[in-house]
TrEMBL record:
One of its GO terms (cellular component) is plasma membrane. Signal peptide: none annotated. InterPro entries: BP-dependent_transpt_permease (IPR050366), MetI-like (IPR000515), MetI-like_sf (IPR035906), OppC_N (IPR025966). It holds the Pfam family BPD_transp_1. It is found in: Cell membrane. The keyword Transferase does not apply. This is ABC transporter permease. Keywords: Cell membrane, Membrane, Transmembrane, Transmembrane helix, Transport. Its main location: membrane. PANTHER family: D,D-DIPEPTIDE TRANSPORT SYSTEM PERMEASE PROTEIN DDPC-RELATED, OLIGOPEPTIDE TRANSPORT SYSTEM PERMEASE PROTEIN APPC. The chain crosses the membrane at residues 17-38, 85-109, 129-157, 245-270.
Length: 285
C-alpha cells in the first residue's frame, strides 16, 4: 500500500486529476441511491424545464435543473454514472478475456490457428467499430445486457493483437524453453509462464479502453439502439435533450461535460498505469 501511495504522490498532475475524478465517480456510482436527491424517474410536470440554480429562474431544489418531464437532472446524472461504469468495466472485461485468450492461442501455437485468428482480426478491422456494434444491437435488441455483450464481443481485437505480438517474443525466452524441456503441458506453459508476462499490457490497454466503451454506449443510446429510455444514462440524457438544445441547453450540456471529463480522466489513469509499468514509455503516444 505504501508503494501505491508513493507512486501516486510522484505521479503527474494529469494523473492525479484523473485518479481523483475516477475515485469520485466510483463513490458516486456506488452511493447513487443515497446521494441522489430524488428518484431516478420521479416526474414533476409543474417543474418541467426548470433551469439550473445559476441561471435566472433556477433554484437549489434542482441544482442542475429539470428535463422536459420534470425529472431532476442531477439525480439522473448520478444514476447515469453508475450505468456508464457498469457498461465500461463489464464490457471491457468481456473484450479483454476474449482478446487475451485468442492472442495467447495465436501467438503460442502459430500455424493454422494463428492464420484463422489473424483473419478474424482482419475481418473485424474491415468494419468500423461503431457500425458493427450498431448492426449487432439492432439485431439483438436494445437492452443493457445486449449493449454490454455487443461492446465486449466487438472490442477484443486490440487485446488479441497486443497479446499475440508479445507472446511471439516471450515464447522464445529461456524460461519458456526450460518449461518445454521439463515436459510441462502447453496449457501450463501458456497460463503459468506466458500469461503473467503479457497480462499487464492487456490490463493497461483495457483501462484506457473503458473511456472508448463508455463513449460507444452513449453513441448507441443517442441513436436509439442502446439502453432503453426508462434507464437513466448519459447517452439517454443527451438524446432526450437534443430537441431542447436551444431552449434548454443544460439538458445536453451537463451530461456531455460529465461524459467528456469522465472519459478524459480514465485516459489519464491509463497513461499513468502505462508509465508506472514502463517509465521508458512516458511521453510516448
Amino acid at each position: 500500500m505504501n508503494d501505491v501511495w508513493k507512486m501516486i504522490r510522484h505521479s503527474t498532475r494529469t494523473a492525479k486529476f484523473g485518479l481523483v475524478v475516477v475515485a469520485v465517480w466510483i463513490v458516486v456510482a456506488v452511493l447513487a441511491p443515497i446521494l441522489a436527491p430524488y428518484g431516478m424517474n420521479d416526474i414533476d410536470v409543474a417543474q418541467r424545464l426548470a433551469p439550473p440554480c445559476w441561471m435566472e429562474g433556477g433554484s437549489m431544489d434542482h441544482i442542475f435543473g429539470t428535463d422536459q418531464l420534470g425529472r431532476d437532472v442531477l439525480t439522473r446524472l448520478i444514476y447515469g454514472s453508475r450505468i456508464s461504469l457498469i457498461v465500461g468495466i463489464v464490457a471491457g472485461i468481456v473484450g479483454l478475456v476474449i482478446g487475451v485468450i485468442l492472442g495467447l492461442l495465436a501467438g503460442y501455437f502459430g500455424g493454422w490457428i494463428d492464420v484463422v485468428i489473424s483473419r478474424m482480426i482482419d475481418v473485424m478491422l474491415a468494419f468500423p467499430f461503431i457500425f458493427l456494434a450498431l448492426l449487432l444491437v439492432a439485431a439483438l435488441g436494445a437492452s443493457l445486457t445486449n449493449v454490454i455483450l455487443v461492446l465486449g464481443i466487438t472490442g477484443w481485437v486490440p487485446y488479441a493483437r497486443t497479446v499475440r505480438a508479445q507472446v511471439l517474443s516471450v515464447k522464445e525466452k529461456e524460461f519458456v524453453k526450460a518449461a518445454h524441456a521439463l515436459g510441462c503441458s502447453d496449457g501450463r506453459i501458456i497460463f503459468k509462464q506466458i500469461l503473467p508476462s503479457v497480462i499487464d499490457s492487456a490490463i493497461i490497454l483495457g483501462t484506457m479502453d473503458i473511456g472508448t466503451i463508455i463513449l460507444s454506449e452513449a453513441s448507441l443510446t443517442f441513436l436509439g439502439l442502446g439502453i432503453p429510455p426508462n434507464i437513466a444514462t448519459w447517452g439517454n440524457m443527451i438524446a432526450n435533450g437534443n430537441d431542447y438544445i436551444f431552449s434548454a441547453g443544460w439538458l445536453t450540456m451537463i451530461p456531455g461535460i460529465a461524459l467528456l471529463i469522465g472519459c478524459i480522466s480514465i485516459n489519464f489513469v491509463g497513461d499513468w498505469l502505462r508509465d508506472v509499468r514502463d517509465p521508458r514509455l512516458r511521453g510516448v503516444d
